[in-house]
Each structure stands twice: as C-alpha cells, then as structure tokens.
Amino acid sequence: MMLSFVLHLLLHVTSLIFQTNAFSMKMIPIDSPDLQIIPKTFTTKDRAHFLRNISLSRAFYANKRNAKLGLNSIQTPYTNIQSSYFVTQFTFGRNNPPFTPTVVLDTSTDVTWIQCSKCDPCFTLKDSFSVDDSKSYSRMAPEDTRCKPKISYEGSCGFKATYGKGHTQGYLGLDTFSFNDTQGETNYFTNVAFGCGIRNHEFEFGSAAGNVIAGIFGLGIGPRSIMTQLSTEIKGRFSYCIKPDQGTSTILYGDDAQIIGDDARKVQTIAMNSEARYHVYLAAITVDGSRLAIDPTVFELDAQDFTRGFFIDPGATFTVITNTAHMELDGAVQTFFREKYQWDPLPSDAYMFDLCYDKVPDATKGQYYPSIVFNFIKAPGDTGEVQLELDSKNVFGNFVNKDGFCLQILPTANSSDGPSILGAFQQRNLQFLFDTDAQLLSFVPKTC
C-alpha cells in the first residue's frame, strides 16, 4: 500500500515538472566577443560591413521572389544568407550532461533543426551532435499527425528547409527540451519535434574555422514551430528587451512574457499578423514633426511574395526600408541639418551607411537630432494611429575614432518595393510583447 502511494506521488510530481507555463532563452549578438564568431582580424569597417549586410541579406531574402531566384548581390566574405543578428541555445536530451547546441534565432522560419553527425554534405562545425546518443530521442514516424508536410526520409518523417541558396534535408525527431525560467528553475517539455539536418548545402555559419553555430531555432508561426508545439503552455506569448552595446538579452515565453508601463511610459498595442513573419501595419514615417510624402501602399502586406510589407525582425541588425521611403527619409534628414545648422553630409561612399556627417549636435548650443517616428495603424480598418518614436541613439550612430555620426537606417538592395523591416538596433531599450494568439504587438520604452 505504501509503495503504491509513493509511486503515485512520484508520478504526480513528475507530471508537475512538465506542466510549466514559462521559460526563457538567451539572445546573444552574433558579434559578441564571447562567441568569437567574427574574426579577430576584423577592422571597425569590416565589422560595420558585416552587420550592415546581415540586414540587407534578411530584407533581400524575406522577399520570396528573391529567395526563389537564389541570388545574392550583397555577398561578402563575412556574411551570407543564413545570417541573423542573434544566436541562442536550446537543450535537448535527458543525458548528463545534456546536449546544448548554439543556433541562429530566427523569427522568419518555423523550423528548428541542427546538423547531425551523420551529415553528408556538412558545413564546418566545431562540435558535431549525434541525436541518437540522446537516451530520450526517437525519430518521428511518417504516420505521426505532426508530420506536415508528409515527407519520408529513411523510413522516418522527413523535412526540408530552404534559405535562399542554402538548403537542408533530413528527418524529424522527438526529444525532451529543457529551458530555465526567470527563477532559475529548469522546465522540461517532452516529445518536442525538431529537425536533424543530414544533407546540408551552401551553409557557412560564422567563420569557417571554429564555427559553433549548429543550425536554426525557428520562432515563426507554423505547424512545426516551437510556438505551435508549446502553444498550450506558453499561450502564444513571447517578449524581449534588446540591450545596447553587444549585451546578451533574454527572450521570455508564456507567463514570464509580461509588459508594464507607467504614467511616463505608456504601453501601446497594435495589430500584428504573426503568420506573415510578424507583419505590422505601418502608415507613415514622421521626421521632426513632418509626415513624409511616402506612398503608404509600399508598406501594405503582399502575403504571397512579401515584396511589400513592414516586419518586426530582431534578426536584422539595422532597420531596412523600401528605397522610395528611404529617399524621402534621407532627404528630410539632410534638409533638417542643412536648414538648422548649415551642415552638409559626407560623400555617400565614405562609410557603410548612405548618410553620414563629420560632426554631432552640441546640446550646450541648443543643437539636437531630428525626431523620427513610425506611425502604426492600430488595426486594419481603424483610422487611429500609434506612434513609436525611435531613440536618437539608436538611429544616429557615432562612428569610431571620428567626431561624427551616420543614419543607421538602410535602403533595400536590388528592389524598389521592399519588404521593410524594423531591425535590432532600432529596437534597443524597448520592451516588446508578441501575443500570437490575439495577433497583437505591444511595446513600451524601457532600460533593458
């Protein structure tokens, strides 16, 4: 009788371990010195080039037409189409110690996968992962209801994922994932599906020597996404607040994903389409109180090819906007500094950004940067707007060893229509809450 009671109690406690509603993950900038992904030989200009091209690559390949073509006119030896500004880690398996690969954090895909040790071909990876060594790992059968689309690979449920020129193929498996919550407790999730990449073509994560990035952690919405698989526990909610200066931030899920304001910092909420890569409805851009003459249709969602639209993408380092919108923004900023302080910009090819100056506003002389505001529609069909004023420190970045600054918002490459994306640098010191169940995005200024 006592033995039966003890077994019942253990089963009850074990079930409680898995019934968690919150967890967190790191958001580590790809240029963090701790990762050592960027070569030590990089100059300041090399680093700027690297970060700039991450943004242009993501905007270019967010356009499905470009992704299908497999073109990349913004190739450099330092970055490629799989680049993202943040990487993270997830832990799977009940081994001691468990497996904890480093992966790209990507809101534009719903597939989570890692390269496995039996791959052919493979990309360079410092530590290979053999999922078969995990005591709790099993392959997903093709008959599993989660096997969508139904692809067979070596008798198991298979998967394919394409990223411009890069593509991977392999099988889906199931294992126990574990994450820490804000209290430092470890929370476990059983039978989570993720991909084991066997045939990996055209991938170059980080530098070839000593690469630690093993794959991709997909935060997009889809049948295989972590958001969908754990929807009961985390209720479609995640939140983050990006720190400045290469600091590691935290992404919170479920009950830990909260947003709080006060009288000085109002929480604002707008409609979002999370099934279209976290699209939001941008109506206009305002510079120093004046609304720019931008055709608002360039920000309307083209759900078929994503040639238009405005997306929240922390994977892009800098904000990228359609060429026609950037011309208006660039012109308004130039007019501001010319009329107020008689400043002329540097030659456009002097630095990694299109608009730079060799001096900075002096507050003691009453000089200041122009305000830049993104005007969002509250919801489709709603005439009301919500304003997001970007912090001038995130928009006008100083360049090193020079008493000057650049406008750190880029025009799209190779396409005049878009898409446009709000990048990580312009999201710094803002708390964002994504509620995918309610299709709402909330934000508030915060010191991260």
Automatic annotation (TrEMBL):
Ranges where the Peptidase A1 domain occurs: 86-444
Family, as annotated: Belongs to the peptidase A1 family.
GO BP term, example: proteolysis
Coiled-coil zones: none
InterPro entries reported in the protein's UniProt record: Pepsin-like_plant (IPR034161), PEPTIDASE_A1 (IPR033121), Peptidase_aspartic_dom_sf (IPR021109), Plant_Aspart_Prot_A1 (IPR051708), TAXi_C (IPR032799), TAXi_N (IPR032861)
Alphabetic keyword roster: Aspartyl protease, Glycoprotein, Hydrolase, Protease, Signal
Example of a GO cellular component annotation carried by this entry: extracellular region
Organism: Saponaria officinalis
MF (Gene Ontology): aspartic-type endopeptidase activity
Top-level division of the source organism's lineage: Eukaryota
Name recorded for this polypeptide: Peptidase A1 domain-containing protein
